[in-house]
């Protein structure tokens, strides 16, 4: 969160509270408060909206990496410094490996090159975007682990949970990590200013997360848009956690450029250098008379400057809002659900294709983009074989072409197939054909893991 006496941009005035009744009515009119999502069966703890709970340990692991990056780069991750670019590269590598489409946007401010990282999850209605963001830069005085490694790590782990869950949102999901926020929201302002008006109109909501793990935490919710505010407040209420309206950071973080452009915004905040009152300490715990974060913008803003409970709770609240506002369903339960056939099917030499079926039931939504098809085929010359996975729609996905130079025996392996165009439930088939003479074999069995 940038400091008010730094370089300035237009500041959004502080707002008065919105009456609860008006918030509910506005939520209905805007259509943002969607019905709960039914997730696929899994052992992962889930929120009422079907989103997974985000373990604090997962988020903390990213913070440890950001701390190591700062330590190796002069003690900070500030704009224009090597620590910032290394932080961006770390986040980007995680997203690329998870299947996101990432792009890096360059801008110049303060005589140095800055970088924004934007990541899009494939699928969802591109005309309706649910956008989550945080600033990745620190001040030059320290590593910036709460401000704002916490928000950056929180949305990173939520983005990775989207991939792990095989989440299929109805709306398009976008995440961003902004540069040079500490100089006055320079990165996010550049992004919004460069965005064509037609693209701005596609953003249903921008959610901002700047400081979510303060060591003496509070639970503050932005009151910029009543419908988005209600999504967050309902999530905390279901957990028995009281919230307050966030006014301390109004206009001081990356939601301001979006709000100024007419885009609905919302977000969470755990407190900075303001003092926790006795009433707040009674409500949330912690120490009255002390700042929510006494290391705000100081060298002591390290991994020791984090409340793990607040970090995990707020990260899970982010996931709850992302799932709630985007709709959709999860189709890849952690650990996987498997369906197997052990029926032997003879493969004729240079003959017609044979098929081994598996009926899948009890799942919801579409098949994952990383469906696992494990095969066990006994054959004296596997180079003769052509193998397809056939989905319930009848579409064939080629997993193995013939190869006359592959003289080894048997095919015992697992193929990964992007089957997200298929419904999960239905009859799946393994289709195998021997296309050359002199060898034969048997499909000994195969398995699908969702």
Short description:
The protein is of the alpha+beta class. It is 27% helix and 26% strand.
Describe the fold and architecture.
By secondary structure, this protein is an alpha+beta fold. About 25% of the residues lie in helices and about 25% in strands. It contains 10 helices and 19 strands. The strands form 4 sheets. It has an 8-stranded mixed β-sheet with strand order 1-2-5-3-6-9-7-8, with helices on both faces. Strands 11, 12, 14, 17 and 19 form a 5-stranded antiparallel β-sheet that branches. Strand 7, helix 7 and strand 8 form a beta-alpha-beta unit. Helix 4 crosses helix 10. The two termini are about 40 Å apart. The relative contact order is 0.15.
Quote the beta fraction: 25-35%
Question: Which blocks of ≥5 consecutive residues have pLDDT under 50?
Answer: 4-43
The strand line-up of the biggest sheet is 1-2-5-3-6-9-7-8
Element-by-element helix/strand order:
HHHEEEHEEHHEEHEHEHHEEEEEEEEEE
Report on the biggest sheet: 8 strands, mixed
User: How many DSSP helices?
Assistant: 10
Gross morphology? elongated
Q: Note the gap between the termini.
A: 41 Å
The rounded Rg comes to 25 Å
The overall average pLDDT, rounded, is: 87
Oligomer: single chain
